[in-house]
Amino acid sequence: MPQGKPEYVPDDGLTTRARRNRPLVIVHTGPGKGKSTAAFGLALRAWNQGWPIGVFQFVKSAKWRIGEENALLALGRLHAETGEGGPVFWSKMGEGWSWIQRPGSEADHEADAREGWEQIKRDLAAETHRLYVLDEFTYPMKWGWVDVEDVIAALRDRPGNQHVVITGRDADPRLVEFADLVTEMGKVRHPMDRGQKGQKGIEW
Fold first, then answer.
1. Residue 96 has pLDDT above 70, yes or no
2. Mean pLDDT throughout 130-148?
3. Which segments of the chain does DSSP mark as H helices, in order?
4. CB 132 within 8 A of CB 163
5. CA-to-CA separations, 85 to 38, 45, 62, 78, 82, in angstroms, rounded
6. Which CDD domains match (predicted)?
């Protein structure tokens, strides 16, 4: 395919510019590594364009400090001090990894995840951010904590020009069908297959 030229041009009455600027729902799923990393890469590009960024990290401990969080929050402080780039908001909700003991019950984690989704809906309605990273959001949907149809309806009806990236394994087929861009990351080989864990702070 020639660079920059789509294989198919729909007869929708839109100009090339209007079609290019349509807001997207993007899903990164599959058993391979790199789903969140790719989403945060998009967030870096969005920050450079001056877009307001909202990161909502599901089912991870609020105590975990990942490199992308530190980097993006530092960029958010840079924006606040100099006006460069865009503002960054980062929120964690739920601690639901089933193989690690976490404080609180499953009901507590479910309530956290649902409230997180309700906040996202409020932000979408208010057009608070230009790019949303909903990290590991496929899991609350898989576990029934958040209704998939409600997610699709809110994303379909969102106003303005808000892009949404959802990451996590086992994306619901209905979400996959709805999304504009879906990437499935498959594992070919991993160091853990040979008993090697990721380096601290890197987590391959």
1. no
2. 95
3. 16-20, 35-48, 67-82, 106-126, 138-142, 148-156, 173-178
4. yes
5. 19, 10, 26, 8, 9
6. CobA_ACA (cd00561)
DSSP 3-state helix, strand, coil percentages of the chain (rounded to 5)? 40, 15, 45
- pLDDT mean across residues, the chain: 86
Task: Report the C-alpha gap between 172 and 103 in whole angstroms.
Answer: 28
Tokens encoding 55: 């990161």
Supply the DSSP string of 101-117, one letter for each residue. --SS-HHHHHHHHHHHH
Tokens standing for 184? 């499935």
What are the b/e assignments for 175-195, b being 16+ CB within 10 Å? beebbeebeebeeeeeeeeee
Distance, CA of 72 to chain centre = 14
- The mean per-residue pLDDT over the stretch 91-120 comes to 68
Rounded to two decimals, the pTM is: 0.86
Q: In which band, very low, low, confident or very high, does the pLDDT at 29 lie, cut at 50, 70 and 90?
A: very high
pLDDT digits (tens, 9 = 90+) for 173-203: 999 999 999 999 998 887 777 877 766 666 6
Residue 49 amino acid letter: Q
Residue type, 175: L
